[in-house]
Design a protein that fits this description.
heterodimer; A: Rossmann fold; Rossmann fold; 3 domains; 6-stranded parallel β-sheet; 23 helices; globular; B: alpha+beta; Alpha-Beta Plaits
Amino acid sequence: MTKTSPATIAKAPLSNRFTGAHMLISALEAQGVEVVFGYPGGAIMPVYDALPGSKLTHILTRHEQGASFAADAYARVSGRPGVCLATSGPGGTNLVTGLANAFMDSVPVVAITGQVARPLIGTDAFQEVDIFGITLPIVKHSFIIDDPDKIGEIVAEAFAIAQSGRPGPVLIDLPKDVAAAIMTPTPTPVAQKEALPILIRDDYEHAEHLIREARRPLLYVGGGVGISGAVPALRNFIARTGIPVVATLKGLGAVPTDAPEFLGMLGMHGSRAANLAVQNCDLLITCGARFDDRATGRLTGFAPNARVLHLDGDPAEIGKLRAADHALPGNLTYALNALHPGILSIDTWQGECSHDRVTHAARYDAPGDKVFAPALLKTLSERAGDDLIVTCDVGQHQMWAAQHCRFVRPEAHLTSGGLGAMGYGIPAGIGALYAEPDATVITVTGDGSIMMNIQELATLKRYGLPLKIVLLDNQALGMVRQWQELFFAGNYSEIDLSDNPDFAALARVFGLEAMTITTRAEVPGAIDWLLSCKGPALMHVHIDPAANVWPLVPPGADNHDMMEER
Amino acid sequence: MIRHIEISLESQHGALLRVLGTIERRGWVVRAMDMDSQGNDAQTLRLKIERSRHHSGSFDTLTRHVTKLFCVRQIGVSTTQTDECAIVETSASPHAHMAAVATGAPA
């Protein structure tokens, strides 16, 4: 990977005087920031003037949304806050989807926006929008810096807030005159993460009692496990107890998908084994999950016979949608390590779960010679190895990746879970490659999603990023088409994409290597080719336009009422 | 269901909007409010709120979401569901130490 440092593409700063912008850069350096993703413009120009010569590597995306998604993915993989920069007005509004994505999926992102100068705020000045107000519902916190002397303090606080407790995005809006103000450098405090509470022994004893009493306990694992670094504690707990596991979309990888206790993803496109286990369990040990509607189906029919033991870092999630019989809010690692319920009598239950896992395992022997996307993704992920990171867009391909790829760690699966934002995949691949340059990073996308941020192919070329893109092309907005087929009497409305461009040719124009396949026989060679590419590459795969994602829990149904392939 | 809530807020940009927005987005309607200052750096906000008829979220869940806001210092709630404003239960925000973090003091 070639990293183009800002110093090589920009001239020296116009002024050697220390400004608010220099203070901002210094404060970012003090927080350990190495990479920022951004796009310059009028109100943020003092910051870009201060960038050359700093320790920060700036990655110029081709759209601010790309910068926000890249920062999000960088944070998910590195475990450190991702940083994005944009100017005022449209620069800020273009960050909004990325901030909402980080908010919904609890990702620590610090977004810095330029703002018009303080005297112009409220005058409808050129490129003035109230980005502070626009983003209030989708940030964990936000600041407007009205005093250059507060820059260091606010940056430190923003990083502390973004990382503490349940992580999330923080916005810093920086007026241009504050950034341009001449000031004296001051030391910047370093952010410290707020520690989550640790409960007393009595709380754990009651939880252990519930687990011992259960004959059909089940772990329901969400994204909170990976976010809080509780993966080793979870795996140790499973090794001690043998309790079967299901995971949400964001919980995938917390337990290796090929572990014997793992029954698959639950919910709308979950595996039959996972959904049956949820419906039949008598204790649901909810671990860093939030009873999202895509996971639960009809809430009142979800795990109908189960008590709930809820472990979560965010107390506000306890009892929000499903009452907990007992809760352990606080540090997940501590809680999982503290739970020692002893020998459990769950042999029969384990046998049932294992039987369902085998009996209802996905099949990869679909008839015909068209490319079968689930089989392709399964083989590709197995071939890529343990350092694989898959970044997804949103749609059918996203669900196929979740169902069929092999994941051995949470960072291996980056997906827009809560927001469901098409366009996430390629910029997320960029962010992942900066967080873990030696990983094999593969973006799985569709012909609808790729067009949402296709301009970032230019970013891949510019920085020589070896992102491997698998484009599953069904010439339609496939998930919408599937729902129109199943739930809207086949009234296909505005889903046709049969006039797509030649994606391989388009990728080559951007400077990527590219190939197109149309038949199943071509898959092994195409996978070999993709994995051997040293630079950015796109594998354009024509799939059956009628292919659907199975199983499917219809909206409003219970999770055991799954529709299967006809 | 009418509930009363009293919130001690940091005097910072957007604090009032942040609290009111959280309450409304979580399915509650503000029926009455008043606010006064507690000096230069804090404000007290008193609200009479009612759950939207299309929403079933609990009052406890709402107060936990409000408590999470970084501009909230302390929250008091009435224990009754009547029109009487009797604030008897209070909890401090878990974020009271954040200023110390920002100035480099031990958390």
